[in-house]
Amino acid sequence: MSGSRSLSTSDTDGATLEALAELVAIVDRLRDPQGGCPWDLAQTHSSLIPYVLEEAHEVADAIRQGDDDHLAEELGDLLLQVVLHARIASETERFDLAAVASAITEKLVRRHPHVFDPEAERVDDPEAVRRSWEVIKAAERQQPATASPLSDRLALKVRGQPALAGAMTISRKAAAAGFEWDAIEGVWAKVQEEMDELREAVASGDRAHAQEELGDVLFTLVNVARWCNLDPEEGLAGTNRRFLDRFSRVEAALGGDLGGRRLAELEGHWQAAKAQIRAEGGLGPIRPPVDPAVGGS
Predict the structure, then answer these.
(1) Per-residue pLDDT reduced to its tens digit, 189-226
(2) Quick one: how far is CA 30 from the chain centroid?
């Protein structure tokens, strides 16, 4: 960290360090082979992948809801995953929590020269900071030249993203490189083409083929979202919330028992729930944008 402002634990609140130390001690106890928790002892990096993803999504949901108490709780759950993975790795002397913290600390200092290097020029523009971050990150990789540089960079970029967000990243970068339709009509035609192929694949009974075609449909719909300047992740998250709101009202209207009900009856309660939400000032049913061409390329 030559040339940068020195950092020390004195900059951190003592209560915070004490709380982190207590969490580390608890995880150590849970992973203790002699008296730990059987479930925690059975976990590996691979087995914990679903929990890491789940906790990250629950953090995002708490942020969307604007619930500070919930956000603090979910951030704790995510922090637990970090500490647990570090503990598992330390048991085979690969790395530990100190190495994890040191690595991200060094990376933050290295990628923020405008903050930590007294000889660097001060930067006040967030976009300029983002560009500088990308330049420094690219220099860190120092990858040899390949015949597919954009594809290689995108593969690295999307590996840590959810599939839907990764599809949007790929779509945007490919379009910026010139791999783009002339008009949105071409995107809609592609949606119909992919839907037809999905129908055929499902009808064939070939599950693997159907899975591929489903992915193609979703990827093409992400392109629609890009053209319309919409966020597919936020859109789907909102639909999930609205569905659960309406579904809970249907359940309540039927006393919590949906078994044996006819579809017409369920649909009637569903429409009543939508109307009730609209009357309460909710978002109501999803409608397409007035001008589907908004957003262009």
Answers:
(1) 999 999 999 999 999 999 999 999 999 999 999 999 99
(2) 28
Q: Which residue has the higher pLDDT, 140 or 211?
A: 211
Backbone angles phi, psi at 84, to 5 degrees: -65, -45
* Mean pLDDT of the 163-176 span: 90
Burial (0-12, 13-18, 19+ Cβ within 10 Å), 251: middle
pTM tops 0.85: no
d(CA 120, CA 3): 9
Contact between 167 and 215 under an 8 Å Cβ cutoff? The reply is no
Q: How many CA atoms lie within 13 A of 225 on its CB side?
A: 21
Continuous segment of H or E residues that includes residue 202: helix 184-204
Q: Which of 27-31, 195-199, 250-254 has the lowest mean pLDDT?
A: 250-254
Pair of tokens at residue 13:
């609140």
The C-alpha atoms of residue 166 and residue 163 are separated, in whole angstroms, by: 5
How far from chain centre, in Å, is Cα 253?
A: 34
**Tally of CB atoms within 10 A around 24:** 15
Task: Please state, in angstroms and rounded to a whole number, the distance separating the CA atoms of residues 58 and 278.
Answer: 27
The full set of domains in the chain, from first to last, is 9-110 (1.10.287.1080)
Three-state SS for 290?
Answer: coil
Collapsing DSSP to helix, strand or coil, 213 comes out as helix
